[in-house]
Design goal:
InterPro entries: Cys-rich_flank_reg_C, FN3_dom, FN3_sf, Ig-like_fold, Leu-rich_rpt, Leu-rich_rpt_typical-subtyp, LRR_dom_sf, SLRP
Keywords: Disulfide bond, Leucine-rich repeat, Membrane, Repeat, Signal, Transmembrane, Transmembrane helix
Helix content: 10-25%
Shape: globular
Number of strands: 80
Protein name: Chaoptin
Distance between the termini: 51 Å
Pfam families: fn3, LRR_8
Strand content: 15-25%
Radius of gyration: 42 Å
Length: 1425
């Protein structure tokens, strides 16, 4: 049967005859599915009662569950025998009854089972749904499922190793409707792969399918509705295999290599509703390419590389409801792209590079969701969404929007969500939201809004959430938010608000959340003005990080619903009682970092529900008994970093539920017994750095729930430890006190102690019974004391001890005796002592040791490894010692050792045998930094390091890298040889490192890196060559195709060649900053299709290579160009325009640096500045008015020639500007200015002939350059900024007929029409025939003469031209100078496409009749009126 193919111009739907068959098919399918469901339900009811689960002891490893619809078995980690046994037990338990297993799920089947046999399913097995996942199955016997018969309805063999579809094994399963073979290793679907089955759903996702036979789905033509072929290797859309599948509804082909759809014109999928082609290789979406899927409703093309979409690409999809084109590289869409898709409900074009949206999404009456986030949209024009009346969700965040037309949303009465975050909007025009009656969410955060006009939100009566944070708003006036009675959330944080008028938020009766943090408010008046007979609705108020010194007593009046309030980081000095009088339900109050020195006794009295109070970093010196007396529900109280000197007795008595009390960094001096009462339930008490010298006996006696106590940095002595009688205490931190007199009974009052920190406590000795009463200790920190020895039984009985830190003491020898029986210790640190020698044989008691830290000692030798037992050791740190060599049996028995730290020693080469696989088979990480290495290891050594994945060899004496240095490291993934003296790299230095991912050669003395040195690194992802002395770059080899990050910063590179990076197609980040770059080839980045970050800052570029940046604009996310000596002249005008339109790329890079702490403020650096001319030096380039550095107009000269009675010829000269995408000629009769005629010309045109003019008439003629030009001083859009009409008549409101930087006008008057009278020699009028002959004779003579003159003229011009060219060539050879590259504009996407552009080009070619020597053979056009 022959199918129709739709012509380009056809936009109508199918006729009723064409649609009747698919409708009937879908109805039949629906009926069949409903019938199958009813039958299955009936059968389930009949079969579900057929058996019960056996006793659990009979089903080891296979739990069984009884449900109404049958038995469910789950068998994780099953073996062939255990699975068979479980099924036998199920059958036996049913006795004579027929038992049906509704579902059998087998997870991680024994990997030894590579073949599924029939014997695994005993006779009588009745299974409806079987799934075997994560197995090693490679084959399935032909009779494997014979015993399951027709009962089996769904089968899944997922994450196995099947090499092919087991067609013969599946043949008996005539009742099978669902087959899942996801994540196997199937490479091909041959003929009749599923013959004999009636599958409805087939999942082949995640295989390696590259070939599909034409008859692969034979037998499934009438049944198959859902097919998943995602994540395979399919290159050609499988139309020939699918066109006979009559009822296919859903097809998933995501994550394949499909680049186009079939174009044979007759193959069709008439029932397909859902098509997923995301993550394929589509670069172009051509004309009517989906005509093969006429009833498609959902289409996904996301995550491709599409940059071109034909305006009629979707013309056949008249039923399309949802389309996803996100994450592509689309710059331009024609206004007619979706005109044939009136049923569209959702369009996703986010993460593309659209600049303009004028009319593209207009007249889509059913459109509800439109996603345009993260494009480069510059404006919202009046007709952007015209008549798309159903639009309810609109995402426009992370674009470059500067201009908003007040009529942009005029027809969006159903709009509920509008997201405009992170743009460059400076003002919201009044009337912009007037027609959005249903708007509930409005996001304008992250823009540049300075002022809000009253009435901006006057019609948005349903607004519930308004986000205005991160703008530049300075004032909130009364009336701005007046018409928002339903607003719930108002976000104004991080602006520059200095004043809020009284009653500014008065009308927001339902407001629940107000955020004003990060502004400049010094005083807050009565902004809410809640009346005395009503209550506020606020639940949270955020006022922190302002400059608030004064809160009016009525500022919070009536706010009886507030539950959380932030007032921290302000300048408040006192808390008065009236301030919080109405906060009766507040639960959390933040007052940190103010200057509060006084709290009135009744200030917190109304806050009966308060649970959290933050008063840290204030100036409180005294807490009275009334300060917190009414806070009976308080659970957390933070008073740290005040100047507290006194807590009155029983000041905390009322806080019955207090769990956390923080009093750190105060001046309490003494702890009285009346400070903490018995009734307090404190679990965490922080008294760090409170200058405590005295603690009265029983001060903590009543704190029976105390879990953690911190007394660090005080002036306590060992006597204070005797007072600590806290039986339930688990964590005690008492470091930085004076416990030099500690004895065996000091810690007896804390028998439950689990963690003890006594660092920096002047301890020089410990008694053998110091911890005898602390049997539960698991962590002991004794670092930075004066210990030089430990009693041998110090840790005896501590069976839970896991971590011991003895670093920073005075041990000259390891305290071997204390570790004899400490078998539970896993982490041991003796760093920064003065140990000279280590005998590991005496540490055999540390059998469970996992990490050993011995850094910063004076160790010169280590021994005893043959008798040592460190079977669980993972990490050893011997850095910053005095080792010159390692013994050959170094940790020979530590088979689990993964990390060895040897930096800062005196090793001259890698200790080959000591670290080889013979001793350390699992060594994966090695650091040799800071050793005086002159070579990596002995070349003659046969020792290998197969498990080593990361090695650091920095700050050594290495001067070169040879081909033998890394041959012993075949498994190396990360190599760091930075900060050495390397000046040479041998050709084969890294060829043995086939798996290397990271290579760091930074901060060496390399002057050249030939491409041969980098060959073989096919998996390399990061190459760091920063801070060398590279002067030139050779083309990087193809072997680096996997490279993601390349850092060439801070070298001496002067130029970048055309092909330098051509083979780095997967590069994501490229750093060229801090070099001497003066020239960059225009195409040097063109092949970097995945580049996201480019940094060329800090170079010597006078002319930034715009032609090099433009191919990246659809993909790049951060561009750094600052600190170049930019020459700000006319040649930089287009650069200014491009950077302005793509300013978010530059903004993004600066913001990231600022977050990383590396950025500079906008006022001091981080911005591109002018170097020349001198009068502009130091000025920010993008802050300049382009006319200040280029006053030359676009149209340099305009000349009128050959004026006649009905025509004139116009010639013009234009300044070279690659942003130009065409000209518009416009003219009108001066006396009749109501009609303006015009036409659009190609950018190469330099002349035009205007015909059919009126004689003896004065005309005003203008030539207008078309392009996205800069705004004019009056703020109006310049003529020709956007795609203009090609009609002869021009809208007068869209064009001003006057001289401007982009247009030039002149006046001309046509000649009077001559009256010709022919007379004879005697004065009588001649007859018509004789007169005509005379005229023809004269004209013939004139034509012959003109031709001869023209030939002579051509000969003269040719001779003169030859002489002139010869002279110019000689002059060029003498005075050849570098000229800035001629740019190709990124705005070429705006050239009219589709029928309009085509007709324009055809007309131009047909009208070419005139050539002028003045314009030097440029393009020309004749315009006929």
């Amino acid at each position: 049967m022959t199918r129709k193919s739709w012509p380009r111009t056809r936009r109508k739907g199918f006729d009723s005859g064409e649609w009747s068959r698919p409708h009937r098919q879908r109805f039949a399918i629906s009926c069949r599915i409903i019938y199958s469901i009813l039958i299955a339900a009936w059968m389930t009811m009949q079969e579900g009662s057929g058996g019960e689960c056996p006793a659990s002891e009979k089903m080891p490893g296979c739990p069984c569950y009884n449900f109404e619809d049958g038995l469910f078995l789950e068998c994780p980690g099953a073996t062939e025998d255990s699975l068979k046994s479980a099924l036998v037990n199920v059958i036996s338990a049913a006795k004579s009854k027929e038992v049906v297993v509704q579902s059998l799920s087998v997870y991680e089947l024994d990997r030894k089972v590579e073949e599924l046999k029939a014997t695994i399913f005993p006779l009588g097995s009745q299974i409806k749904h079987l799934q075997i996942s994560h197995s090693g199955l490679r084959e399935i016997d032909e009779d494997a499922f014979d015993r399951l018969g027709t009962r089996l309805q769904s089968l899944g063999i997922v994450s196995g190793q099947l090499q092919a579809v087991p067609q013969k094994a599946l043949t008996p399963l005539t009742g099978l409707t669902s087959l899942d073979l996801e994540a196997n290793q199937i490479r091909e679907l041959p003929r009749h792969s599923f013959f004999g089955l009636s599958l409805i759903k087939l999942n082949l996702k995640g295989n390696e399918i590259a070939k599909i036979s034409e008859d692969a789905f034979a037998g499934l033509e009438a049944s198959l509705t859902d097919l998943d072929l995602s994540e395979n290797k399919i290159r050609i859309f499988p139309m020939t295999s699918l066109r006979r599948v009559e009822n296919l509804l859903s097809l998933k082909l995501a994550w394949n290599d499909v680049s186009h759809l079939p174009e044979d014109g007759y193959s069709r999928l008439d029932t397909l509703n859902y098509l997923d082609l995301s993550s394929n290789n589509f670069q172009v979406i051509p004309l009517n390419c989906f005509r093969c899927c006429p009833v498609l409703r959902t289409l996904s093309l996301s995550h491709n590389s599409a940059n071109t979409v034909d305006k009629d690409a979707f013309i056949s999809l008249i039923h399309l409801e949802s389309i996803d084109l996100s994450h592509n590289k689309i710059i331009f869409l024609d206004v007619a792209t979706f005109r044939a898709n009136p049923k569209l409900r959702s369009i996703d074009l986010s993460h593309n590079h659209l600049h303009y949206i004028r009319g593209i999404f207009a007249r889509l009456p059913e459109l509800k969701e439109l996603f345009l986030a993260d494009n480069n949209i510059l404006e919202i024009p009046a007709e952007a969404f015209l008549e798309s009346i159903s639009l309810s969700v609109l995402y426009l965040q992370q674009n470059a929007i500067r201009r908003i037309d007040s009529r942009g949303l005029a027809t969006l009465g159903q709009l509920a969500q509008l997201h405009l975050s992170d743009n460059f909007i400076e003002r919201v025009p009044r009337g912009f939201l007037d027609h959005c009656d249903n708007l509930s969410t409005l996001s304008l955060d992250g823009n540049r809004i300075r002022d809000l006009e009253a009435g901006t939100f006057s019609k948005s009566k349903q607004l519930r959430e308004l986000r205005l944070q991160d703008n530049q708003i300075t004032e909130v006036r009364r009336g701005v938010f007046a018409p928002l009675p339903t607003l719930l959330e108002l976000h104004l944080q991080n602006n520059a608000i200095t004043d809020m008028e009284t009653g500014a938020l008065k009308s927001l009766h339902n407001l629940q959340h107000i955020n004003l943090q990060g502004n400049l408010l010094a005083v807050l008046g009565d902004v809410f003005q809640v009346s005395f007979d009503s209550t506020g609705s606020l639940v949270s108020i955020q006022l922190d990080n302002n400059g608030l010194g004064v809160l009016h007593n009525d500022s919070l009046r009536g706010q009886t619903s507030v539950r959380i309030m932030w007032l921290g980081h302000n300048r408040m000095t006192r808390l008065q009682a009236p301030l919080f009088r109405d906060l009766v339900v507040v639960e959390r109050l933040y007052l940190t970092n103010n200057s509060i020195s006084r709290i009135e006794d009744t200030a917190f009295q109304p806050m009966q529900a308060l649970k959290f109070l933050e008063l840290s970093m204030n100036r409180l010196s005294h807490v009275t008994g009334k300060t917190f007396s009414e806070l009976h529900d308080l659970e957390e109280l933070y008073l740290q970093d005040n100047v507290l000197r006194k807590l009155d007795p029983y000041a905390l008595t009322a806080l019955k539920r207090l769990r956390i009390l923080d009093l750190a960094n105060n001046y309490l001096g003494e702890l009285h017994s009346t400070m903490f009462q018995e009734s307090l339930s404190i679990r965490t008490l922080n008294l760090k750095n409170c200058t405590i010298r005295i603690m009265e006996a029983g001060v903590f006696k009543g704190l029976t729930n105390l879990y953690e106590l911190n007394l660090e940095d005080n002036h306590l002595t060992a006597l204070a430890l005797d007072i600590l009688d806290i039986p339930g205490l688990r964590i005690l931190k008492i470091s930085n006190n004076d416990f030099s007199e500690i004895d065996g009974e000091s810690l007896n009052g804390m028998p439950s102690l689990q963690q003890l920190s006594m660092e920096r406590s002047q301890i020089h000795r410990l008694s053998f019974d110091t911890f005898s009463n602390n049997k539960h200790l698991g962590k002991i920190l004794l670092g930075n004391n004066q210990l030089h020895s430990l009693p041998g039984t110090l840790f005896s009985g501590l069976d839970s001890l896991r971590e011991v830190k003895l670093d920073g003491n005075r041990f000259q020898e390891m305290p071997y005796e204390v570790f004899i029986n400490t078998t539970t210790i896993e982490f041991l640190s003796l760093s920064n002592n003065v140990i000279l020698h280590i005998d590991t044989s005496r540490l055999n008691g540390l059998r469970n040791l996992r990490e050993l830290d011995l850094r910063g000692n004076h160790i010169i030798s280590v021994s005893g490894f043959s008798d040592a037992n460190f079977s669980r050791l993972i990490s050893i740190d011997l850095s910053h010692n005095h080792l010159t060599a390692l013994p050959m049996n170094f940790f020979v028995n530590a088979n689990q050792l993964r990390k060895v730290e040897l930096s800062g020693n005196k090793l001259r080469q890698l200790p080959g045998v000591a670290l080889s696989a013979r001793n350390m088979p699992n060594l994966g990480w090695l650091n040799l930094t800071g050793n005086p290495l002159t070579r990596v290891h002995e070349f003659s050594s046969e020792d290998k390091y197969p498990s080593l994945e990361e090695i650091h060899i920095s700050r050594t004496n290495l001067t070169m890298v040879t081909g033998q240095d890394f041959e012993a490291f075949p498994g190396l993934l990360h190599l760091y040889v930075n900060n050495n003296l390397i000046s040479r790299v041998s050709p084969s230095a890294f060829q043995s490192l086939r798996d290397l991912l990271t290579l760091d050669l930074s901060a060496n003395d390399l002057e050249l890196m030939p491409q041969a040195r980098l060959k073989g690194l096919e998996r390399l992802k990061l190459l760091n060559l920063t801070r060398n002395h590279l002067k030139t770059l050779e083309d990087f080899p193809e072997d680096l195709k996997a490279l993601r990050v390349l850092d060439l910063s801070y070298n001496e590179i002067q130029s970048i060649g055309e092909n330098t990076f051509n083979r780095l197609g997967n590069l994501l980040e490229l750093y060229l900053d801090g070099n001497w770059l003066a020239t960059v080839s225009s195409g040097c980045f063109a092949s970097l299709k995945k580049l996201r970050v480019l940094d060329v800052s800090g170079n010597s570029l006078e002319y930034l290579p715009l032609n090099a940046f433009q191919p990246l604009e659809t993909q790049i996310r951060s561009l750094r160009v600052e600190e170049n000596p930019l020459r700000c002249g006319c040649e930089a005008q287009e650069l200014w325009e491009w950077l302005r339109d793509h300013q978010k790329l530059i903004r993004g890079s600066r913001e990231r640096d600022k977050e990383d702490g590396m950025g500079v403020s906008d006022g001091e650096g981080g911005l591109l500045r002018c170097q020349e001319p001198i009068e502009l030096r130091g000025l920010v380039f993008l802050d300049l008015d382009p006319h200040s550095f280029c006053s030359e107009p676009l149209i340099v000269n305009l000349i009128i020639q050959d004026v006649r009675d009905s025509s004139v010829i116009i010639l013009w000269q234009s300044r070279n500007h690659s942003g130009l995408h065409g000209y518009q000629v416009a003219y009108h009769d001066v006396d009749k200015d109501q009609e303006i005629h015009g036409k659009i010309l190609e950018p190469t045109s330099r002349s035009i002939k205007l015909s059919n003019l009126s004689s003896n008439t004065q005309y005003l003629i203008c030539i207008v350059g078309l392009g996205n030009w800069l705004p004019q001083a009056d703020g109006k859009t310049p003529p020709g900024q956007f795609n203009s009409s090609v009609d002869d008549l021009v809208d007068p409101s869209s064009l001003e007929m006057l001289d401007s930087p982009t247009s030039r006008c002149t006046k001309v008057k046509t000649l009077e029409k001559a009256r010709v009278i022919v007379v004879s020699g005697d004065g009588a009028a001649m007859s018509d025939s004789s007169g005509a002959k005379t005229v023809l004779t004269r004209r013939l003579g004139l034509i012959v003469g003109c031709c001869m003159g023209f030939v002579v003229f051509i000969l003269l011009v040719s001779v003169l031209g030859y002489l002139k060219v010869k002279k110019q060539r000689e002059a060029v050879k003498r005075d050849q100078q570098t000229v800035p590259p001629e740019y190709i504009s990124y705005r070429h996407f705006s050239i009219q496409s589709g029928d309009a552009g085509h007709n324009n080009r055809v007309n131009n070619n047909q009208d070419a009749e005139y050539t002028s020597g003045y314009v030097n053979n440029e393009g020309h056009t004749t315009l006929t009126v």
